[in-house]
Amino acid sequence: QVQLVESGGGLVQPGGSLRLSCAASGFTLSTSSMMWVRQAPGKGLEWVSGIGVGEGITYYVDSVKGRFTISKDTAKNTLYLQMNSLKPDDTAIYYCTTYSFTYSYSADWGQGTQVTVSS
Q: One digit per residue, pLDDT tens: the chain, 119 residues?
């Protein structure tokens, strides 16, 4: 069965960096599209960054463009989100999900990892 386990969250000062990891099992990342989704306190879900199966297929919400980079290591079956120049507005629980770009749907979800940006 599909399992997604996120790690790498924590407390960081504004302007700092974090790298989130998502260890996947039960399926192969090389043939799956993925999406990072976040939920800030008291707010709804926001689809932040995605990566498709084909070479160079990526998606970033406008608020993170130029600061976040999504990647995957197919040998380790692990998805990453490198987050630089973090802002307090990036504070949220970050979820790793399997994703269909065709149907705009996140099917499988990890348990989430908390990212807090604060001085």
A: 999 999 999 999 999 999 999 999 999 999 999 999 999 999 999 999 999 987 778 999 999 999 999 999 999 999 999 999 999 999 999 999 999 888 888 989 999 999 999 99
Cβ contact 108:98 at 8 Å: yes
Give the C-alpha separation, 7 to 92, whole Å. 14
Rounded Cα distance, 7 and 78, in Å = 11
Element (H, E) at 45: strand 45-51
CB atoms within 10 A of CB 14: 13
Please give the radius of gyration of the chain, using alpha carbons only, rounded to the nearest integer. 13
Query: Is there a contact between 66 and 83 (Cβ–Cβ < 8 Å)?
Result: no
Angle CA 38–52–40, to nearest 5: 5
d(CA 18, CA 11): 9
